[in-house]
Amino acid sequence: MSSLEKPILTWFRKHKRDLPWRETSPWGVMVSEYMLQQTPVNRVLPKWNEWMQRWPTPNELAQATPAQVITAWGRLGYPRRALRLHAAAQIIAEDFNNKVPEDQETLQLLPGIGEYTAAAIAAFAFEQRSLVMDVNIRRLLVRAIDGEEHPKPAPTAREKARRLEILPTKNAHLWAAATMELGALVCTSKNPACEMCPIISQCQWRKNGYPKTDLVRKSQDWHGTDRKCRGTIVQALRENESLTESAIKKLWPEESQVEKALRTLTDDLLIQRLPRNRYRLPQ
User: Fold this and answer.
1) What is the pLDDT of residues 66-104, one digit of tens each?
2) Which of the pair, 140 or 220, is modelled with greater confidence?
3) Residue 113 DSSP symbol
4) Pick from 10, 107, 172, 195: most CB atoms within 10 A?
5) CB within 8 A of 157, min separation 6: which ones?
6) Does the domain at residues 226-280 carry the CATH identifier 1.10.10?
7) Where do the structural domains in the chain lie, given as residue ranges?
């Protein structure tokens, strides 16, 4: 057993948040993992509850229209995730008897599921021993073990190997949940609450004097971006059955940016173009 395991699991039992997808079906876990990709917990919570009430199994979601799915996704961002979850639900309903597959390789064949999401579903839905490496887990362990402030943008083979060495043989899913929670609540990216950390005495980053990372952490200003423009158009179409291109262009100051957004949204199947230059959500 790693010397980190006992204090982290003890901390988790006392301080873990009451998140509904921790006591749900494999499908509920899968929905949460799609929603939590690049979206914080506080924004996901109300939407997850709405979705699970409306579509409690893959079969119910499979029967929804793309327009219903995109509208229900609301302002979670990156609405392609909604369409991928919808497509995955259709496959599960048709090919897997309405049950989320347990095998990580099979999970990765579903739309929108990569290595990380497959590992997370395997751990949290089926209590398998899988290597879950979200940004919170990676930041916590790179500080505690490697003595660095932030992990690299993507896990390296060396990082994966070192984390596998300390992955518990029993209850690895609890280890994943506990390290994720500690990273999210205490070992945060900015202003970590080190005095509250149960492994402060073992932290190599602390022992090294909290050195700053050499990595440049980029952040994009949301205002005025192509993504913001796309989101504005999709939100307007959620609120209207259809809109003309000229009406859509009134929503945004840069006409060329709107034209680009309409092209890319159409290519991504997030909106449909109708005759007479009208647009709507896909039916």
Assistant:
1) 999 999 999 898 999 999 999 999 999 999 999 999 999
2) 140
3) -
4) 107
5) none
6) yes
7) 17-126, 226-280
pLDDT at 168: 96
Residue with tokens 């049950």: 99
SS3 41: helix
pLDDT for res 80: 93
From 5, 23, 33, 102, the catalytic residue: 33
pTM: 0.84
3-class secondary structure, 280: strand
HSE of 249, CA atoms in CB hemisphere, 13 A: 10
Note if 33 is an active site residue: yes
Burial of 18 (0-12, 13-18, 19+ CB in 10 A): exposed
Mean pLDDT, rounded, for 199-212: 95
pLDDT score at 222: 59
What's 17-126's CATH class?
A: mainly alpha
Query: What separation, in Å, do the N-terminal and C-terminal C-alpha atoms of the chain show?
Result: 53
Q: What is the largest CA-CA distance in the chain?
A: 67
Amino acid identity for residue 109 in this structure: L
In this predicted structure, the answer to whether residue 215 has a pLDDT above a threshold of 60 is no
